Inverse folding.
């Protein structure tokens, strides 16, 4: 079926390695007048992936994306797509399409004329164009609105037209820079899923930029977390959330209770950490590559923390405090428990059960606790 040809690539070699390294970013660095926007970066992106560059404002995400598209020239390094060197090729000669946040639709053209534009410019035959535009309209489910002009469409529909236009020529790589930036919050979460659907159906490989961790977690197969021009961690949303390798990563994605402390006992199969924020020691049920006396951080996610009125039996991984705040999130509530040290502990509580029976409320003295393997020890 035509949908399978949408990304315009044939798996000639068929080698797993080629698919693994479909897009290769090798030692790419970008400076602006001596300012390093992107440090030497290596990244391999698989065919068909939706890969997110995630990070705060100014960390170099767009600059790296623009290097891929050919809108910026790397100061050094190489970019290969499907085995072909991209360096030196202007944007229009790359088998790459970038969808701009503003969509950049032609206001005087209908939906189908917008989608057909690039194909016409390429001198494609009329019949072929008509067929292709129909496929694209079906892909983004806008067949009924083909004759409308952009101003007669909602924001979400405009975005789908822009996407259809970006995919019409069957690019090998689709670039999205903050794709949801122009949409309001409610529409965003809906469009995130629609966009993923369309991209996956088309089979195109996609690199997107976002500063929104939820968006990256929802849309991406893998994420590169960036900070000050450097990639700090690459992994699936799950890996980055469950196994952050740095304090930065742990704090950027999701919420976390983060403690500063020192390694007290460093054994082969367990570690204890003392923190000025906690009276009881932290006990971690596995070894770490560290040493006694080392300064470390320990992070535990609110959903891994148990909250109770009864004191837990274990002598470690617990703290007593006072409920200061309860934030209701439908399926769960987040309790903010103030410890004597001043530390504000966040603990999630599923709303369907025990909430009613235990009846914990503002001002109550409670215990928070967590299991031996529920947190991460971070040394950077
Ligand atoms: N054309 C440019 N000239 C000079 N500095 C730039 C240029 N483009 C980006 N920068 C700088 O590079 C850094 C990274 O920018 P950018 O990649 O746009 O960040 P992000 O997309 O992560 O918000 C910023 O400090 C920005 O000011
Ligand atoms: Mg940007």
């Amino acid at each position: 079926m035509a949908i399978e040809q949408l990304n315009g690539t044939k798996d000639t070699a068929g080698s797993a390695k080629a698919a693994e390294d479909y897009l290769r970013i090798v030692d790419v660095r970008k400076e602006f007048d001596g300012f390093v926007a992107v440090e030497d970066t290596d990244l391999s992106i698989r065919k068909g992936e939706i890969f997110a560059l995630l990070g705060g404002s100014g960390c170099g995400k767009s600059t790296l994306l623009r290097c891929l598209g050919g809108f910026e020239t790397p100061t050094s390094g190489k970019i290969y797509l499907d085995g072909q060197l991209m360096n030196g090729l202007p944007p229009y000669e790359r088998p790459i399409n970038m969808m701009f946040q503003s969509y950049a639709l032609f206001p005087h053209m209908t939906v189908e004329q917008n989608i057909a534009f690039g194909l016409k410019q390429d001198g494609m035959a009329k019949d072929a164009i008509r067929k292709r535009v129909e496929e694209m309209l079906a892909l983004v489910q806008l067949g009924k609105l083909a004759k409308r002009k952009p101003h007669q469409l909602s924001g979400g529909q405009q975005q789908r037209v822009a996407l259809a236009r970006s995919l019409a020529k069957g690019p090998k790589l689709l670039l999205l820079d903050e794709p949801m930036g122009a949409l309001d919050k409610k529409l965003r979460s809906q469009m995130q899923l629609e966009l993923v659907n369309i991209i996956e159906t088309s089979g195109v490989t996609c690199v997107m930029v976002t500063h929104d961790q939820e968006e990256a977690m929802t849309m991406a197969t893998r994420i590169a977390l960036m900070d000050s021009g450097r990639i700090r961690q690459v992994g699936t949303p799950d890996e980055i959330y469950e196994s952050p390798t740095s304090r930065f990563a742990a704090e950027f994605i999701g919420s976390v209770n983060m403690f500063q402390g020192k390694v007290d006992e460093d054994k082969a199969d367990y570690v204890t950490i003392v923190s000025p924020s906690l009276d009881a020691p932290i006990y971690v049920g596995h070894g770490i590559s560290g040493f006694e006396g080392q300064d470390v951080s320990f992070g535990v996610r609110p959903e891994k923390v148990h909250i109770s009125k009864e004191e837990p039996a274990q002598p470690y991984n617990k703290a007593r405090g006072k409920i200061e705040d309860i934030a209701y999130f439908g399926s769960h509530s987040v309790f903010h428990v103030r410890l004597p040290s001043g530390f504000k502990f966040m603990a999630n509580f599923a709303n369907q059960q025990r909430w009613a029976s235990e009846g914990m409320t503002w001002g109550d003295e409670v215990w928070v606790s967590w299991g031996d393997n529920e947190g991460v020890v971070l040394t950077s």
